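Usage example:
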Amino acid sequence: MTTTVPTPPATPLPPLRGADWLLAHDPRLRLLAAGLFALVVVSLNQLSSSGAALALALGLTVAARLDARALARRLLALTGFLLIMLLTLPFTTPGTSWFTLGSLSASTAGRDLALLILCKATAVMLTLTILVGTLDPLAFAQALGRLGVPHRLTQLLLLTIRQIHLIDAESIRLRQALRARAFVPRTDWQTWRTYGWLIGMLLVRSFARAERLLEAMRCRGFRGRFYRLDTPTWRTADSLAALGWLLLLGGLLWFDQHADVQALGAML
Amino acid sequence: MAHIPEGVLSAPVLSAGALITTALLTVALRRLDDVALPRAAVLASALFVASLISVPLGPTSVHLLLNGLMGLLLGWTAVPAIVVALALQAAFFGFGGPLVLGVNALNLALPALMCAGGVRLVRPYLRPAHWPIVGFSAGVLGVMLTGVLVAATLAASGEPFRPAAQVLLLTYPPLALVEGLITATIIGFLQRVAPDMLALGQMRHD
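Running the assembly step on the lines above writes:
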Protein backbone atom coordinates (compact mmCIF):
# COMPACT_ATOMS: atom_id res chain seq x y z
CA MET A 1 0.00 0.00 0.00
CA THR A 2 3.02 2.29 0.14
CA THR A 3 3.07 2.87 -3.62
CA THR A 4 0.76 5.54 -4.96
CA VAL A 5 -1.97 4.18 -7.18
CA PRO A 6 -2.24 6.01 -10.52
CA THR A 7 -5.71 7.43 -10.98
CA PRO A 8 -7.43 8.64 -14.16
CA PRO A 9 -7.29 12.44 -14.51
CA ALA A 10 -10.95 13.36 -14.30
CA THR A 11 -12.63 11.68 -11.34
CA PRO A 12 -15.27 12.94 -8.95
CA LEU A 13 -13.25 11.60 -6.00
CA PRO A 14 -9.79 13.00 -6.57
CA PRO A 15 -7.30 11.99 -3.87
CA LEU A 16 -4.95 14.88 -3.11
CA ARG A 17 -1.24 14.46 -3.70
CA GLY A 18 0.62 14.48 -0.40
CA ALA A 19 4.27 14.49 0.62
CA ASP A 20 6.10 11.17 0.43
CA TRP A 21 6.54 10.81 4.20
CA LEU A 22 2.74 10.90 4.52
CA LEU A 23 2.04 8.37 1.79
CA ALA A 24 4.55 5.97 3.36
CA HIS A 25 2.34 5.46 6.42
CA ASP A 26 -0.20 2.67 6.77
CA PRO A 27 -3.76 3.75 5.76
CA ARG A 28 -5.11 2.33 9.02
CA LEU A 29 -2.76 4.57 11.02
CA ARG A 30 -3.90 7.60 9.03
CA LEU A 31 -7.59 6.81 9.59
CA LEU A 32 -7.09 6.22 13.32
CA ALA A 33 -4.94 9.34 13.71
CA ALA A 34 -7.57 11.51 12.00
CA GLY A 35 -10.39 9.99 14.07
CA LEU A 36 -8.53 10.37 17.35
CA PHE A 37 -7.57 13.96 16.51
CA ALA A 38 -11.24 14.78 15.84
CA LEU A 39 -12.24 13.20 19.15
CA VAL A 40 -9.64 15.18 21.12
CA VAL A 41 -10.29 18.49 19.34
CA VAL A 42 -14.06 18.28 19.76
CA SER A 43 -13.63 17.72 23.50
CA LEU A 44 -11.44 20.84 23.97
CA ASN A 45 -13.02 23.66 26.00
CA GLN A 46 -10.49 26.47 25.80
CA LEU A 47 -9.92 28.84 22.93
CA SER A 48 -6.15 28.69 23.51
CA SER A 49 -5.95 24.89 23.21
CA SER A 50 -8.27 24.89 20.18
CA GLY A 51 -5.98 27.51 18.64
CA ALA A 52 -3.03 25.23 19.37
CA ALA A 53 -4.89 22.37 17.65
CA LEU A 54 -5.45 24.59 14.61
CA ALA A 55 -1.75 25.54 14.64
CA LEU A 56 -0.87 21.84 14.75
CA ALA A 57 -3.19 21.18 11.80
CA LEU A 58 -1.69 24.11 9.87
CA GLY A 59 1.82 22.84 10.60
CA LEU A 60 0.81 19.43 9.29
CA THR A 61 -0.68 21.10 6.18
CA VAL A 62 2.61 22.82 5.42
CA ALA A 63 4.56 19.61 6.04
CA ALA A 64 2.20 17.59 3.82
CA ARG A 65 2.74 20.00 0.89
CA LEU A 66 -0.81 19.77 -0.42
CA ASP A 67 -2.04 21.52 -3.52
CA ALA A 68 -3.12 24.97 -2.26
CA ARG A 69 -6.00 25.33 -4.71
CA ALA A 70 -7.59 21.98 -3.80
CA LEU A 71 -7.22 22.86 -0.13
CA ALA A 72 -8.86 26.25 -0.64
CA ARG A 73 -11.83 24.54 -2.31
CA ARG A 74 -12.28 22.34 0.77
CA LEU A 75 -12.05 25.34 3.10
CA LEU A 76 -14.73 27.02 1.01
CA ALA A 77 -17.03 24.07 1.80
CA LEU A 78 -16.90 25.12 5.45
CA THR A 79 -17.53 28.83 4.99
CA GLY A 80 -21.31 28.93 4.61
CA PHE A 81 -22.02 27.21 7.88
CA LEU A 82 -19.25 28.95 9.83
CA LEU A 83 -20.28 32.38 8.54
CA ILE A 84 -23.76 31.96 10.03
CA MET A 85 -22.13 30.93 13.32
CA LEU A 86 -19.70 33.86 13.33
CA LEU A 87 -22.44 36.35 12.53
CA THR A 88 -25.03 35.15 15.05
CA LEU A 89 -23.17 33.73 18.06
CA PRO A 90 -21.65 37.00 19.40
CA PHE A 91 -25.15 38.49 19.60
CA THR A 92 -26.93 35.47 21.08
CA THR A 93 -24.51 34.49 23.85
CA PRO A 94 -24.98 36.35 27.15
CA GLY A 95 -21.85 37.86 28.75
CA THR A 96 -19.78 41.01 29.06
CA SER A 97 -20.26 43.42 26.19
CA TRP A 98 -17.73 43.42 23.35
CA PHE A 99 -19.34 46.07 21.12
CA THR A 100 -22.85 47.29 20.34
CA LEU A 101 -24.47 47.60 16.94
CA GLY A 102 -27.58 49.76 17.30
CA SER A 103 -29.77 47.90 19.77
CA LEU A 104 -27.75 44.68 19.40
CA SER A 105 -25.01 43.93 21.86
CA ALA A 106 -22.21 41.50 21.04
CA SER A 107 -20.59 39.63 23.93
CA THR A 108 -16.98 38.57 24.28
CA ALA A 109 -18.19 35.12 25.37
CA GLY A 110 -20.10 34.81 22.09
CA ARG A 111 -17.06 35.94 20.11
CA ASP A 112 -14.93 33.34 21.88
CA LEU A 113 -17.50 30.60 21.26
CA ALA A 114 -17.60 31.48 17.55
CA LEU A 115 -13.79 31.48 17.34
CA LEU A 116 -13.68 28.17 19.25
CA ILE A 117 -15.98 26.58 16.67
CA LEU A 118 -14.00 28.12 13.82
CA CYS A 119 -10.71 26.70 15.17
CA LYS A 120 -12.16 23.24 15.85
CA ALA A 121 -13.99 22.86 12.53
CA THR A 122 -11.00 24.05 10.49
CA ALA A 123 -8.49 21.94 12.45
CA VAL A 124 -10.50 18.72 12.07
CA MET A 125 -11.24 19.38 8.39
CA LEU A 126 -7.55 20.05 7.65
CA THR A 127 -6.23 16.93 9.40
CA LEU A 128 -8.95 14.79 7.83
CA THR A 129 -8.03 16.13 4.40
CA ILE A 130 -4.31 15.60 4.96
CA LEU A 131 -4.43 12.16 6.55
CA VAL A 132 -7.44 10.59 4.80
CA GLY A 133 -8.07 12.80 1.75
CA THR A 134 -4.66 11.83 0.36
CA LEU A 135 -5.57 8.13 0.38
CA ASP A 136 -6.71 6.37 -2.73
CA PRO A 137 -10.49 5.94 -2.22
CA LEU A 138 -10.23 2.16 -2.61
CA ALA A 139 -7.41 2.01 -0.04
CA PHE A 140 -9.64 4.10 2.24
CA ALA A 141 -12.42 1.53 1.94
CA GLN A 142 -10.06 -1.44 2.49
CA ALA A 143 -8.53 0.21 5.55
CA LEU A 144 -11.99 0.85 7.02
CA GLY A 145 -12.79 -2.82 6.47
CA ARG A 146 -9.62 -3.87 8.30
CA LEU A 147 -10.51 -1.56 11.18
CA GLY A 148 -13.70 -3.47 11.84
CA VAL A 149 -16.35 -1.74 9.71
CA PRO A 150 -18.93 -4.46 8.83
CA HIS A 151 -17.89 -6.19 5.62
CA ARG A 152 -21.27 -5.64 3.97
CA LEU A 153 -20.82 -1.89 4.38
CA THR A 154 -17.23 -2.09 3.12
CA GLN A 155 -18.40 -3.99 0.03
CA LEU A 156 -21.03 -1.34 -0.63
CA LEU A 157 -18.36 1.35 -0.20
CA LEU A 158 -15.93 -0.42 -2.58
CA LEU A 159 -18.56 -0.99 -5.26
CA THR A 160 -19.92 2.54 -4.88
CA ILE A 161 -16.46 4.11 -5.30
CA ARG A 162 -15.94 2.13 -8.51
CA GLN A 163 -19.41 2.91 -9.84
CA ILE A 164 -19.11 6.63 -9.05
CA HIS A 165 -16.23 6.84 -11.52
CA LEU A 166 -18.21 5.07 -14.24
CA ILE A 167 -21.47 6.92 -13.71
CA ASP A 168 -19.70 10.27 -13.48
CA ALA A 169 -18.19 9.58 -16.90
CA GLU A 170 -21.72 8.82 -18.13
CA SER A 171 -23.01 12.05 -16.59
CA ILE A 172 -20.23 14.08 -18.25
CA ARG A 173 -21.13 12.50 -21.61
CA LEU A 174 -24.83 13.32 -21.21
CA ARG A 175 -24.11 16.91 -20.20
CA GLN A 176 -21.76 17.31 -23.13
CA ALA A 177 -24.61 16.18 -25.37
CA LEU A 178 -26.83 18.81 -23.75
CA ARG A 179 -24.25 21.52 -24.34
CA ALA A 180 -23.85 20.46 -27.94
CA ARG A 181 -27.58 21.18 -28.29
CA ALA A 182 -27.05 24.70 -26.89
CA PHE A 183 -28.42 23.94 -23.43
CA VAL A 184 -27.51 26.65 -20.90
CA PRO A 185 -28.68 26.04 -17.32
CA ARG A 186 -30.85 28.89 -15.98
CA THR A 187 -33.33 29.39 -13.16
CA ASP A 188 -36.37 28.15 -15.07
CA TRP A 189 -38.73 25.22 -15.49
CA GLN A 190 -37.01 24.16 -18.71
CA THR A 191 -33.68 23.70 -16.87
CA TRP A 192 -35.23 21.77 -13.99
CA ARG A 193 -37.14 19.49 -16.35
CA THR A 194 -33.98 18.87 -18.37
CA TYR A 195 -32.01 18.03 -15.23
CA GLY A 196 -34.84 15.74 -14.15
CA TRP A 197 -34.59 13.85 -17.43
CA LEU A 198 -30.79 13.82 -17.16
CA ILE A 199 -30.88 12.28 -13.67
CA GLY A 200 -33.68 9.91 -14.74
CA MET A 201 -31.53 8.75 -17.66
CA LEU A 202 -28.54 8.27 -15.34
CA LEU A 203 -30.72 6.13 -13.08
CA VAL A 204 -32.10 4.02 -15.94
CA ARG A 205 -28.62 3.39 -17.33
CA SER A 206 -27.23 2.59 -13.90
CA PHE A 207 -30.07 0.13 -13.36
CA ALA A 208 -28.96 -1.75 -16.48
CA ARG A 209 -25.37 -1.47 -15.23
CA ALA A 210 -26.40 -3.11 -11.95
CA GLU A 211 -27.70 -6.19 -13.81
CA ARG A 212 -24.36 -6.53 -15.62
CA LEU A 213 -22.48 -6.04 -12.36
CA LEU A 214 -24.51 -8.74 -10.64
CA GLU A 215 -23.84 -11.15 -13.50
CA ALA A 216 -20.13 -10.33 -13.42
CA MET A 217 -20.04 -10.98 -9.68
CA ARG A 218 -21.90 -14.27 -10.10
CA CYS A 219 -19.44 -15.32 -12.82
CA ARG A 220 -16.62 -14.81 -10.33
CA GLY A 221 -18.37 -16.88 -7.68
CA PHE A 222 -19.31 -14.02 -5.37
CA ARG A 223 -20.71 -15.34 -2.13
CA GLY A 224 -20.78 -12.54 0.39
CA ARG A 225 -17.03 -11.85 0.27
CA PHE A 226 -14.46 -10.23 -1.97
CA TYR A 227 -10.81 -11.18 -1.88
CA ARG A 228 -8.79 -8.47 -0.24
CA LEU A 229 -6.06 -7.45 -2.64
CA ASP A 230 -4.25 -5.04 -0.33
CA THR A 231 -1.39 -6.26 1.82
CA PRO A 232 -0.94 -3.60 4.47
CA THR A 233 2.30 -3.78 6.43
CA TRP A 234 2.43 -2.04 9.77
CA ARG A 235 6.05 -1.01 10.23
CA THR A 236 8.14 0.41 13.04
CA ALA A 237 7.84 3.87 11.52
CA ASP A 238 4.05 3.60 11.87
CA SER A 239 4.33 2.69 15.54
CA LEU A 240 6.70 5.60 16.15
CA ALA A 241 4.38 8.01 14.31
CA ALA A 242 1.43 6.70 16.36
CA LEU A 243 3.39 7.27 19.58
CA GLY A 244 4.36 10.81 18.54
CA TRP A 245 0.76 11.61 17.58
CA LEU A 246 -0.55 10.30 20.91
CA LEU A 247 1.99 12.48 22.77
CA LEU A 248 0.89 15.55 20.78
CA LEU A 249 -2.79 14.84 21.48
CA GLY A 250 -2.03 14.24 25.16
CA GLY A 251 -0.23 17.58 25.19
CA LEU A 252 -3.29 19.27 23.70
CA LEU A 253 -5.55 17.76 26.38
CA TRP A 254 -3.11 18.78 29.14
CA PHE A 255 -2.93 22.32 27.74
CA ASP A 256 -6.73 22.44 27.65
CA GLN A 257 -6.90 21.56 31.36
CA HIS A 258 -4.19 23.98 32.44
CA ALA A 259 -4.57 26.86 30.00
CA ASP A 260 -4.43 30.15 31.86
CA VAL A 261 -7.55 32.08 30.95
CA GLN A 262 -6.09 35.36 32.21
CA ALA A 263 -2.93 35.06 30.12
CA LEU A 264 -5.09 34.30 27.11
CA GLY A 265 -7.13 37.44 27.69
CA ALA A 266 -3.92 39.49 27.74
CA MET A 267 -2.79 37.83 24.52
CA LEU A 268 -5.98 38.76 22.70
CA MET B 1 -25.89 23.10 3.81
CA ALA B 2 -27.06 19.77 5.06
CA HIS B 3 -23.58 18.92 6.35
CA ILE B 4 -22.83 20.16 9.86
CA PRO B 5 -19.07 20.63 10.35
CA GLU B 6 -17.12 19.06 13.21
CA GLY B 7 -16.81 21.00 16.47
CA VAL B 8 -20.28 22.58 16.52
CA LEU B 9 -22.64 20.07 18.09
CA SER B 10 -22.57 19.05 21.75
CA ALA B 11 -21.40 15.62 22.89
CA PRO B 12 -24.91 14.26 23.78
CA VAL B 13 -26.25 15.22 20.32
CA LEU B 14 -23.24 13.62 18.61
CA SER B 15 -23.55 10.37 20.56
CA ALA B 16 -27.33 10.16 20.11
CA GLY B 17 -26.92 10.67 16.34
CA ALA B 18 -24.18 8.05 16.11
CA LEU B 19 -26.21 5.57 18.16
CA ILE B 20 -29.46 5.91 16.17
CA THR B 21 -27.62 5.81 12.84
CA THR B 22 -25.78 2.64 13.90
CA ALA B 23 -29.10 1.03 14.87
CA LEU B 24 -30.76 1.98 11.55
CA LEU B 25 -27.66 0.83 9.67
CA THR B 26 -27.71 -2.55 11.39
CA VAL B 27 -31.35 -3.11 10.40
CA ALA B 28 -30.74 -1.92 6.84
CA LEU B 29 -27.60 -4.03 6.30
CA ARG B 30 -29.41 -7.15 7.49
CA ARG B 31 -31.98 -6.59 4.70
CA LEU B 32 -29.27 -6.12 2.06
CA ASP B 33 -28.49 -9.52 0.52
CA ASP B 34 -25.91 -10.51 -2.12
CA VAL B 35 -28.33 -10.01 -5.00
CA ALA B 36 -29.42 -6.55 -3.87
CA LEU B 37 -25.86 -5.36 -3.20
CA PRO B 38 -24.79 -4.34 -6.75
CA ARG B 39 -28.11 -2.60 -7.37
CA ALA B 40 -27.77 -0.64 -4.13
CA ALA B 41 -24.19 0.34 -4.96
CA VAL B 42 -25.02 1.46 -8.49
CA LEU B 43 -28.09 3.48 -7.49
CA ALA B 44 -26.18 5.01 -4.57
CA SER B 45 -23.43 6.07 -6.98
CA ALA B 46 -25.93 7.47 -9.48
CA LEU B 47 -27.55 9.57 -6.77
CA PHE B 48 -24.10 10.65 -5.52
CA VAL B 49 -23.14 11.79 -9.02
CA ALA B 50 -26.51 13.50 -9.50
CA SER B 51 -25.99 15.47 -6.28
CA LEU B 52 -22.71 16.81 -7.71
CA ILE B 53 -24.60 18.63 -10.50
CA SER B 54 -24.97 22.28 -9.56
CA VAL B 55 -28.42 23.63 -10.38
CA PRO B 56 -28.62 27.42 -10.87
CA LEU B 57 -31.05 29.15 -8.52
CA GLY B 58 -31.22 32.93 -8.94
CA PRO B 59 -27.81 34.44 -8.23
CA THR B 60 -26.39 31.26 -6.65
CA SER B 61 -26.52 27.57 -7.40
CA VAL B 62 -27.61 24.61 -5.30
CA HIS B 63 -26.79 20.93 -5.10
CA LEU B 64 -29.66 18.49 -4.82
CA LEU B 65 -29.94 16.32 -1.70
CA LEU B 66 -32.09 13.66 -3.42
CA ASN B 67 -32.76 11.86 -0.13
CA GLY B 68 -36.52 11.77 -0.83
CA LEU B 69 -35.84 10.09 -4.17
CA MET B 70 -33.40 7.69 -2.46
CA GLY B 71 -36.17 6.69 -0.07
CA LEU B 72 -38.57 6.05 -2.98
CA LEU B 73 -36.10 4.02 -5.04
CA LEU B 74 -34.05 2.26 -2.35
CA GLY B 75 -36.29 1.91 0.72
CA TRP B 76 -34.22 0.78 3.71
CA THR B 77 -31.09 0.57 1.55
CA ALA B 78 -31.11 4.37 1.47
CA VAL B 79 -29.55 4.31 4.96
CA PRO B 80 -26.25 2.59 4.04
CA ALA B 81 -26.21 4.46 0.71
CA ILE B 82 -26.39 7.79 2.57
CA VAL B 83 -23.75 6.72 5.12
CA VAL B 84 -21.39 5.67 2.31
CA ALA B 85 -21.94 8.92 0.40
CA LEU B 86 -21.36 11.05 3.50
CA ALA B 87 -18.21 9.12 4.46
CA LEU B 88 -16.80 9.78 0.99
CA GLN B 89 -17.82 13.44 1.11
CA ALA B 90 -16.19 13.89 4.53
CA ALA B 91 -12.94 12.24 3.47
CA PHE B 92 -12.58 13.62 -0.06
CA PHE B 93 -14.60 16.87 -0.21
CA GLY B 94 -14.17 18.26 3.31
CA PHE B 95 -17.91 18.24 4.16
CA GLY B 96 -18.73 17.16 7.71
CA GLY B 97 -16.36 14.99 9.72
CA PRO B 98 -15.88 11.57 11.33
CA LEU B 99 -17.75 12.31 14.57
CA VAL B 100 -20.71 14.22 13.10
CA LEU B 101 -21.17 11.53 10.45
CA GLY B 102 -23.86 9.87 12.58
CA VAL B 103 -25.90 13.05 13.00
CA ASN B 104 -25.44 14.14 9.38
CA ALA B 105 -26.46 10.69 8.11
CA LEU B 106 -29.49 10.60 10.40
CA ASN B 107 -30.62 14.06 9.20
CA LEU B 108 -30.74 12.75 5.63
CA ALA B 109 -31.73 9.13 6.25
CA LEU B 110 -34.73 9.72 8.51
CA PRO B 111 -36.57 11.80 5.85
CA ALA B 112 -35.64 9.17 3.24
CA LEU B 113 -37.17 6.42 5.39
CA MET B 114 -40.27 8.55 5.99
CA CYS B 115 -40.71 9.02 2.22
CA ALA B 116 -40.28 5.27 1.74
CA GLY B 117 -42.85 4.54 4.43
CA GLY B 118 -45.25 7.19 3.13
CA VAL B 119 -45.30 5.88 -0.41
CA ARG B 120 -45.81 2.38 0.94
CA LEU B 121 -48.96 3.56 2.73
CA VAL B 122 -50.50 5.35 -0.26
CA ARG B 123 -49.36 2.83 -2.87
CA PRO B 124 -52.62 0.80 -3.06
CA TYR B 125 -54.57 3.96 -3.91
CA LEU B 126 -52.11 5.33 -6.49
CA ARG B 127 -53.10 5.73 -10.10
CA PRO B 128 -50.35 6.21 -12.73
CA ALA B 129 -51.15 9.93 -13.02
CA HIS B 130 -50.38 10.38 -9.33
CA TRP B 131 -46.71 9.35 -9.47
CA PRO B 132 -45.28 12.79 -10.36
CA ILE B 133 -47.19 14.21 -7.36
CA VAL B 134 -45.60 11.52 -5.18
CA GLY B 135 -42.22 12.52 -6.61
CA PHE B 136 -42.85 16.20 -5.93
CA SER B 137 -43.91 15.51 -2.35
CA ALA B 138 -40.90 13.24 -1.74
CA GLY B 139 -38.55 15.94 -3.06
CA VAL B 140 -40.09 18.71 -0.96
CA LEU B 141 -40.48 16.55 2.17
CA GLY B 142 -36.96 15.11 1.93
CA VAL B 143 -35.38 18.57 1.86
CA MET B 144 -37.69 20.27 4.37
CA LEU B 145 -37.49 17.46 6.94
CA THR B 146 -33.71 17.49 6.58
CA GLY B 147 -33.75 21.25 7.16
CA VAL B 148 -35.88 20.83 10.27
CA LEU B 149 -33.62 18.07 11.59
CA VAL B 150 -30.42 20.07 10.92
CA ALA B 151 -31.95 23.07 12.72
CA ALA B 152 -33.18 20.85 15.56
CA THR B 153 -29.79 19.18 16.12
CA LEU B 154 -28.19 22.63 16.14
CA ALA B 155 -30.76 24.08 18.55
CA ALA B 156 -30.39 21.03 20.83
CA SER B 157 -26.68 21.79 21.20
CA GLY B 158 -27.25 25.00 23.14
CA GLU B 159 -29.38 28.09 23.59
CA PRO B 160 -27.02 30.44 21.64
CA PHE B 161 -27.42 28.29 18.51
CA ARG B 162 -31.19 28.83 18.18
CA PRO B 163 -31.04 31.98 15.97
CA ALA B 164 -28.42 30.35 13.73
CA ALA B 165 -30.75 27.35 13.42
CA GLN B 166 -33.60 29.65 12.36
CA VAL B 167 -31.43 31.41 9.77
CA LEU B 168 -30.38 28.02 8.43
CA LEU B 169 -33.99 26.84 8.19
CA LEU B 170 -34.79 29.82 5.93
CA THR B 171 -32.32 28.60 3.31
CA TYR B 172 -34.21 25.34 2.73
CA PRO B 173 -37.60 26.22 1.11
CA PRO B 174 -36.15 27.39 -2.26
CA LEU B 175 -34.07 24.22 -2.51
CA ALA B 176 -37.11 22.15 -1.49
CA LEU B 177 -39.17 23.65 -4.34
CA VAL B 178 -36.49 23.00 -6.96
CA GLU B 179 -35.87 19.50 -5.64
CA GLY B 180 -39.62 18.78 -5.65
CA LEU B 181 -39.96 19.84 -9.30
CA ILE B 182 -36.88 17.89 -10.39
CA THR B 183 -37.91 14.77 -8.44
CA ALA B 184 -41.39 14.95 -10.00
CA THR B 185 -39.76 15.01 -13.46
CA ILE B 186 -37.44 12.13 -12.57
CA ILE B 187 -40.33 10.00 -11.33
CA GLY B 188 -42.42 10.85 -14.40
CA PHE B 189 -39.51 9.87 -16.60
CA LEU B 190 -38.87 6.58 -14.79
CA GLN B 191 -42.58 5.76 -14.95
CA ARG B 192 -42.51 5.94 -18.74
CA VAL B 193 -39.04 4.47 -19.36
CA ALA B 194 -38.41 1.98 -16.54
CA PRO B 195 -41.54 1.39 -14.45
CA ASP B 196 -39.87 -1.56 -12.65
CA MET B 197 -37.58 0.85 -10.87
CA LEU B 198 -40.48 2.42 -9.00
CA ALA B 199 -41.28 -0.92 -7.41
CA LEU B 200 -37.76 -1.38 -6.10
CA GLY B 201 -37.90 0.44 -2.79
CA GLN B 202 -40.96 -1.60 -1.89
CA MET B 203 -39.50 -5.05 -2.32
CA ARG B 204 -37.31 -4.79 0.75
CA HIS B 205 -40.33 -3.98 2.88
CA ASP B 206 -42.46 -6.96 1.98
